[in-house]
Amino acid sequence: MTEQTPISRPGSLADAKMPKASRRRFLQGAGAASLGLVVGFHWAPRNAAAMTGRPEMLTAFIRIAPDNTVTVLSKHLEMGQGSYTGLATIVAEELDADWAQIRAEGAPADAKLYANLAFGTVQGTGGSTAIANSWDQLRKAGATARAMLVAAAAQQWKVPAGEITVARGVLSHKSGKKASFGQLAAAAAQQTPPADVTLKDPAKFQYIGKKVARLDAVAKSTGKAQYALDVRLPGMATALVQRAPLFGGKVKNFDAAAAKAVPGVLDVVQISNGVAVVAKNFWAAKLGREALQVEWDDSAAEKRGSEQIMAEYKELARQPGLPARKDGDVDAAFAGAAKIIEATYDFPYLAHAPMEPLDCVVKLDGDGCEIWAGDQFQTIDQMNAARVLGLKPEQVKINTLYAGGSFGRRANIVSDYIVEGAEIAKAYGKAPVRLVWTREDDIQGGRYRPMYHHTLKAAIDAQGNITAWQHRIVGQSILAGTPFEAVMVKNGIDHTSVEGAANLPYAIPNMSVELHTTKVGVPVLWWRSVGSTHTAFATEVFLDEIAAATRQDPVALRRKLLAKHPRHLGVLNLAAEKAGWGKPLAKGRMRGVAVHESFSSFVAEVAEVVLQPDGSWKVDRVVAAVDCGIPINPDIIRAQVESGIGFGLSATIKPGLSLTDGRVDQSNFHDYEVLRIHEMPKIEVHIVPSKEKPTGIGEPGTPPVAPAVANALMSGTRQVFRALPLPEAVKSA
Prior knowledge:
Structural class: alpha+beta
Radius of gyration: 27 Å
Largest sheet: 7 strands, mixed
Number of strands: 29
Strand order of the largest sheet: 10-11-8-18-15-16-17
CATH class of the largest domain: Alpha Beta
CATH topology of the largest domain: Aldehyde Oxidoreductase, domain 4
Strand content: 15-25%
Number of domains: 3
């Protein structure tokens, strides 16, 4: 790799020289003849301003071993979303492999080879980009590998390549000659890769669009899957960190005597984010941390509570913000309106709370650093670890393991848990170190979906048409102060704060979307479906309020406003049809709808809610329709939509995070609850057939569920619901 300048502060890429990609077309490493065939593909630069992938890349995705296994190297983290299976399916399709021979493993941290085309020159997983940015890339890689195998067979058999067929991992000729991929791999590695290959006609797909078994299912079911907590190295120590109880607090001084007296504690070291207790095992580290005496400097810490912060947000919303969208003349439309409808919506801070909290293993030696983690942002983490260790990024090797969930938490620009692990390993210096965050550590001292306040106002004419729409959003910027700010924050607008609102598809002639970006000391981060977690609720619930005020059917109103958006309309119509929209419901049952686009995928959901005589209620059924382009694996798509609905329902019916005097009140699943199995509704997922390129599905199922549920409650109770979480009980109409 080319030399890179170390980062000047955590997460800063602005001062770093990103790696320049090689122009070689293929990687054929030394010993390829004995190891098998390794295939990659070169990509030309694209428009950097569009953040769609500008690097000249050398990528190596396929390894065919003599034992006939085909391993797909995944540049994307497998954290439960099915990326290993989806990406391998694309390769297997073009390669004409047998699914039984397909394997997948995490690619090494190397942005030259494995950059995410949606992120530019950064390797990482997020934004539902895994399939979308790899579709063309992996199809061509698979087709190229196939062509090289065919060329090798033609050369050995002395027959024309055009007479060779490939099916289920076997090459055949009409003369009766046959060979497996493994038998031809060494010879194929010596072939000159073709400059161009013909991709398979979608009508002939054998795997894409079909259900194939997940590659990670057996390992996860039998306990063979390796997570960071499973890593064992000789002499390895375990570390826990005592962090400031207030965000922005710093260590003033500490007394380690009592902690060091705990049996099993090996050392106590100060790092930039607190004080770490290093011990022989987790329990000793935990007891040592409890005995540790730390005095904190809270002079620069955030000391406001969430109620105080929200009150300040509401005052800000009274004034115009920075324009994120401005169509037509909103003021004139309001001046001539027959009716004006106004509403405000509030959203709390939310934690990610993945089942596997943050953890990593760091080993230092004379050659550099090796890290084991469920790593979501390999390039960022590699550079930040190098910075704190005084190394070059290429001296930091990252082994990407499975992650037990993330929802965005492991993709943070400051690489908090990776940097802490590196700092502890450096300060301790005697053995590899495993850093463990407890769930309490992450819920009380982590990074959160920002708290938001929205105000909306609509102008209605005498015929009930919406003539103007004004939307103001108040909240923290996720991108401010990060290296992405220079590229993704334009004219003061963080697009993650307004996505789903600034690109609202409804045909309203006069529209204004404004943003107030606040400065609060609470660390924030993207959370599954990012801006759409709050904008979808505000816009879709407000639209139902307008429908009620103008006596229009919510689906009919959306159909009228989406007439020029066929993909939105397609999922809306399919969900409404499958849910029986317009048909009578049994007493006590209510129905609501929402439709939303996020990450270039389109999802509509209809929620059925059952209301009990005492005012309690439960979501009984959700019907979802999704258009995510060509469906790679319908079974995984359904699973991800179901998962997104469950995740969104947690934020719909369970309390979020609250702060008192700057401290997070919640600590674990007993007071920061997530949806339980018995609370999960029946879910139907219907996939719209499509010939469009595939887009993401890990996140788009989440945004529509909360507004669909709120709209169902509103339809049956004639009450408005403008804050999340929704109340546990409501009044009957």
